[in-house]
Amino acid sequence: MSPVGVFDSGVGGLSVLAALRAELPHENFVYFADTAYAPYGERGDAYVIERSRAVVEHLLREHGIKALVVACNTATTAAIHLLRADHPDLPIVGLEPGLKPAVASSRTGHISVLATRGTLASAKYANLRASFAGSADVRPVPCDGLVKAIEGFDSAGIAALSERYMAEAGPFGDGPGEVDTVVLGCTHYPLVKEELGKHAPATLRFIDTGVPVAQQTRRLLASAGRLADGTGAAGNLLLQSSGDVAVLEAAAARWLGLSATATA
Ligand code: DGL
Predict the structure, then answer these.
(1) Pathway, per UniProt (predicted)?
(2) 154 in a labelled binding site
(3) Phi-psi group of 204: left, alpha or beta (phi > 0 → left; psi -120 to 50 → alpha; rest → beta)
């Protein structure tokens, strides 16, 4: 049975993959981490477009994927419209920072968005903000270096950068003028939510879009008549990387308790 392809610049999309596997247990997945070319978020659109196209070509050619999840906010903002134009018959789901649910759940009306510089500078993000922010105060916090620290399992770097960016995202609380909701607008960040949460009260809400993306993937597969019916080999996961696949496997095991048949 053809797999669903999922890709990210590195290990971040594993946070989305976990939601996909929970929502779609009968599907096979192939996850591609473009580690040799990561991070995407501080490099500009042309680079991200070129890499996204190369990864999708690979997933189609080598794995005959039946649908694609771009498990990366940065690649979605830079390239998803081009990927859809390149492959009109391929169902494609992308990710964008969860501003809409954040605005709906915030009581103070003060929200911070942690994301890559590329995502926050994009026209797509500007449109998202114009459509959903309303009268809310939405503060962008570009988290330079955090993806690199996560990719490198750099615990000290993750701790220092989490403290720095959460200080920029606050002050937190439920009182007037305080931020009560933080959007995790990069798929790497849910992996370090616990570390980020050390610098905020327990009442702070973190928003990420893994679950709604998984539900949208189910809808798209169903409407394309490509949903697995539960017969045949199912639930398989293949991990691939343009870099060291052992790093991806270690990340999958460490953060998500996932194991898989990995190939380089
Ligand atoms: N995980 C990615 C995102 O959701 C991008 C990280 C990067 O390569 O900078 O934006």
Answers:
(1) Cell wall biogenesis; peptidoglycan biosynthesis
(2) no
(3) beta
